[in-house]
Amino acid sequence: MTMLLSVTDLHVSIPFGRGVQTLVDGVSLEVAAGEIFCIVGESGSGKSITAKSLMGLLPRLARTSGTALFDGVNLLDKDVATSVRGRDVGMIFQEPMTALNPVLTIGCQMTEAAISVAGMSKHDAQHRAIELLDSVGINQAAKRLRQYPHEFSGGMRQRVLIAMAMMNEPRLLIADEPTTALDVTVQSQILHLLKSLVRRTNMGLILITHDMGVVAEMADRVLVMQRGKVVESATVETLFAAPTQPYSRALLAAVPRLDVIEQKEQPAVGNTLVVVDRISKRFETGRRWFTRQKDVLESAQALDNVSLTVAEGEVLALVGESGSGKSTAGRAIANLLKVDSGVVRIAGTDVASLSGSALRTSRAQTQMIFQDPYSSLDPRFSIGQTIAEPMIIQGVEKSVAMRQASQLLDRVGLSKQLLDRYPHEFSGGQRQRVAIARALASNPSVIVADEPTSALDVSIQAQILDLLLALKKERSLALLFISHDLAVVQQIADRVAVMRRGKIVESGSVQNVLQSSRHAYTQLLIASAPVPDPAKRAKKMTTISPLPDGAEDILQEVSPGHWVAR
Predict the structure, then answer these.
(1) Residue 153 sits in a domain of what CATH number?
(2) What's the whole-model pTM score?
């Protein structure tokens, strides 16, 4: 086995106050040709800093020491390694919309490095770009080269980054969390593509992730990091079967598993609080100007005759891919958008008919937890002000509201001493706890949680799920939990509704839908989900043929409480 990269005693530090903060502390690793080497750990463990040091992408004030030998060249030597990076060593970044320039076409961005670094002619570079886009599953590649990043979906943008990284045929590819924000089906396709590229070209792949399911499906060897140091290094089979370090065991124990059936006690369900009756919503997506018919208005059907209910003390999970209508349904229930037809009733009241003080009272009773707490928290407000604001709006005196905000902060597991701090001073998991505290401030009876754990590490995710379950039981909340992660859904939900193209295609208890699924789309989602066990690696990609129009209009009860579209 040919060794491509050998990193020895890597240290990375930056000035901090009057001293120095060490970000990476003595990391050593080796990557061979044709090998998939995974680096895992929680946020802040030093995974991405290690990768960026190899690519020369650290901040200007950062200091490195040690060696990272690739073909006899030390990648830590910025002057010497310039000729290697981008040509023999490539990188795929975590967020494709940030990594791609929004004002340049895909073709311009793909061919730039090939022309400037590898010396390709413009014609040859464009021809290779078309070949690579086609190889990563993007149709009409020649046309796509003339388009811009915003015209691509998240999964397609990630495929573009993979194709871009392969333009110069690198011998070593570094992929930093390439599937974190993707749906399970798209994630499965991207991972399958990366694995096939490694096997076909014999390149080495460093895959950075916090998803142990992805590690189990992809890795040959694994390096576990914590606080900048190497905790454990082993083959993937050894790590999952017999981890030697407590931190590794804790990471594996926190992973929700879809392949393990747990007996759940039946929730103490009360009155039905949320009734959604055949709601539909169509969004205008833009105008097609250059047609024979002027000002042709394009639109997309986000919701199509959706019906569901949620009771006190119950968790209903809405699952499906991006664009399936999950978030639109959640926003309709929270009365954040008006539906075109149908009715949403909260505690028997049609929320669309409310106005004035009645509307404010209704909105206080239905709160929403958003996916990205940093975007949903006002950076100008302290945490105390953020939590107290809903109570003040409802007429509570400021001093009383701040006292209750302190109690809520304590309830979600944060110190009362943090009330005067601002969102940027908190970690992602802490900010999500603040968002939960704010949602609880108005003492709601219904909470809509829209992908509240998708961007969190597994250990933080487990804490947030435990907190939501405890609060649901404590306050008899009706909780609508929106997610594309079926393993998380199995852990938290009592019932599941699967959405596809704006319609519910299957619904029922967790056991019925996830363990005895009857619809082809549900089966595809389950087959695409990564399993955190190397012995159960996915054997093949699963596909389904398009369903004929009207095939999902009618839900039929196939067993008590289990409904499937026919």
Answers:
(1) 3.40.50.300
(2) 0.80
Q: Is 243 in the same domain as 279? A: no
Reported as a single tens digit per residue, the pLDDT across 467-503 is: 899 989 888 999 999 988 888 899 899 999 999 989 9
Sequence-separated (6 or more) residues with CB below 8 Å from residue 295: 287, 289
Query: Residue 326 in contact with residue 482, Cβ under 8 Å?
Result: yes
Which three-class secondary structure string do you get for 192-244? HHHHHHHHHHCCEEEEEECCHHHHHHHCCEEEEEECCEEEEEEEHHHHHHCCC
- Classified as helix, coil or strand, 291 is coil
CB 233 within 8 A of CB 222: yes
C-alpha pair distances (Å), 269 with each of 308, 362, 369, 440, 479: 15, 22, 22, 20, 12
The residue segments making up the domain with residue 247 are: 29-55+84-210+229-253
Q: Answer yes or no: do 174 and 323 share one domain.
A: no
Asked whether residue 50 falls in the same domain as residue 193, the answer is: yes
Which residues are within 8 A (CB) of 20 and not within 5 positions of it... i.e. 6 or more apart?
Answer: 13, 14, 63
Phi and psi at residue 147, to the nearest 5°: -95, 170
**Same domain, residue pair 148 and 239:** yes
Angle at CA 256, nearest 5°, toward 254 and 258? 155
* 369, 470: one domain: yes
**Alpha carbon 434 to chain centroid, angstroms:** 19
Residue 425 lies in a domain: no
pLDDT digits (tens, 9 = 90+) for 523-535: 989 988 888 888 8
- Rounded to 10 degrees, the C-alpha dihedral 96/101/106/109 comes to -110
